[in-house]
């Protein structure tokens, strides 16, 4: 995978791959999705029983594609997961996955 040295303002496109002992960060580009793929991935991850922190998808200003990232500290409890399940059912109808 391509390795790029970038400053943290590019964080929406890159993720930290590693930090060495001198504090030097190595970044790799985040996985890019189409809008629908990204939304579906978000639903899948947020509905998983083991998911604790909410995932969100967003359009990247750098590459124009969609990435997944963590919502700022939002915790997925059972109530939140039920909400996501209902949103996913609606989403599937809206996008023609269910007629
Ligand atoms: Zn990007």
What keyword list fits this structure?
99 residues, alpha+beta, 2 domains, two-stranded antiparallel ribbon, 30% helix, 28% strand, binds zinc ion
Strand order of the largest sheet: 1-2
H/I helix tally: 2
The major beta sheet can be summarized as: 2 strands, antiparallel
Bound molecules: zinc ion
In short:
The protein is of the alpha+beta class and about 100 residues long. Helix content is about 30%, strand content about 30%. The protein is built from 2 helices and 4 strands; from the N terminus they run E-E-H-E-E-H.
Q: How does the SSE layout of this entry go?
A:
Elements (H helix, E strand, L loop, with lengths): L13 E6 L5 E5 L5 H13 L5 E7 L6 E10 L2 H17 L5
Antiparallel strand pairs: 1-2, 3-4
Helix pairs in contact: 1-2
Bound molecules: zinc ion.
Zinc ion binds next to loops.
Explain this structure to me?
The chain is α+β, with helices and mostly antiparallel strands and 99 residues long. The chain has two domains: 1-30, no CATH class; 31-94, no CATH class. It is 30% helix and 28% strand. The chain contains two helices and four strands. The protein has helices at 35-47, 78-94, and strands at residues 14-19, 25-29, 53-59, 66-75. The protein has a two-stranded antiparallel sheet. The chain has a two-stranded antiparallel sheet with strand order 3-4. The longest helix has 17 residues, at 78-94. It starts with 13 loop residues before the first strand and ends in a 5-residue tail after the last helix. The mean pLDDT is 88. The structure holds zinc ion. Residues 13, 32, 60, 62-63, 65, 67 line the site of zinc ion (ZN).
């Amino acid at each position: 995978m391509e390795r790029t040295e970038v400053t943290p303002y590019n964080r929406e496109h890159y993720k930290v791959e590693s930090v060495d002992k001198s504090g030097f960060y190595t970044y790799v580009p985040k996985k890019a999705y189409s809008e629908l793929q990204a939304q579906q991935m978000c639903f899948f991850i947020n509905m998983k029983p083991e998911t604790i922190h909410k995932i969100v998808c967003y359009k990247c200003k750098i590459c124009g594609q969609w990435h997944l990232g963590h919502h700022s500290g939002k915790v997925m409890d059972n109530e939140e997961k039920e909400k996501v399940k209902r949103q996913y059912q609606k989403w599937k109808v809206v996008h023609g996955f269910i007629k």
